Queue: 2 jobs
Job 1
Amino acid sequence: MSTPSSSPDRERIGVRYVSDAVKRDHRSLEKLYATLSDTGSTDDAEHKRELQQRFCWELARHLVAMNLFIFPGTSRRASQGNRSAMDRQKDFALLRGRLLDLSAARDGDEDEEEGFRGLLAQLREGLARHIREVERADLVAIEKVLSGEESERLASDFEASVFFIPPEVRAGPEGKGGVRAPFETIGALLDASAEELSGVLDGFPRD
């Protein structure tokens, strides 16, 4: 069975602003979550594992891109006592923890299946809150301070973050599918510093 693909050349017609790119990411994550949730104990185990890893890598990549381009400096502001930054950092930490738990989970026997479903349900709450708050407030605010050119450039960088995902998980067109992901595990991607992430991102292809 083929591995679900995540192409870096997803249709972009009409996408100009970084807020559009983020919302497209959100819709993709919601769809992947729904697909994974709809799998049952009788479904092919390999296919379920592929869906699980696809969703987890996509969410990890999304969180990293959000911290790089939408919420830069959050850690610094949180350390200075900024309440909004502290809340944002707390929400991201919770979502990150649940993501790591889900990426390591197995759903073989009945007990494992029950645990897997529980982790999915827990992650859904955090993901839904993230999407709701970002789209209602953060994206509106960021577009107010960016020029069209700045927002378009951020959108290009944001979408290039798809290359953080290993090629066996995301399948790109010829010439791009071979771009090597710099991190071997989801944990390594999430643990990378902003400087390290920005450095490797600079070498990723852009449209």
Job 2
Amino acid sequence: MSYKSASAHVQYNGLTSDNFSISQGVGQGRVLSSWLFSLYINDLILQLISTNCGIRIRIGYLNIPAILLADDTTLLSASPKGLQGLLDCVQTYACKWRLKYNGTKSCVLAFNNNTDVDIKLGNTKIACKTDTIYAGTLITNNNKTFERTKNAAKKLKKNLHSLYSAGVNPKGLTPITNTLIWKRFVLPTALYSCEVWGQLSKF
């Protein structure tokens, strides 16, 4: 199906609506969707860079105002004023190109423990928190790794018990099979993004 002829219908409670055309957006899971969205959002990145409000890294004097993962946007700034400048840029871009950001689902994570900052996205004040989850990884403003390790252990136990509930009995399996199950189904869940845990503690 091409984007020119895209259509959809709604099914609810056993009823089906008439077909209606889709004139904007990209289809979830389609091959071209990620590329089309990248083209759509690229101008925002350029505009954020032009504000000079991002974090400056002393490697060729890089200015990094944002990290984007699909449609998740993380803004980086060394000061509340700089962060507000980035948010104003995002709001202007969103209004121009009919992109909606939900300020109530956003948060400010201040690494200097200053939780009394007044940051807004449009007219919505963004809450200041001590931790947040980004791309499945817990990030805290105190640079401690204990909570990440604790959460990983919980995931490991949950995954292991879900296998037991599904009827997997380790006593009835060979050591090789048990090891394969452990390595392929249990450990990956617990160790997701563990490569950056040590780096996050030094952030």
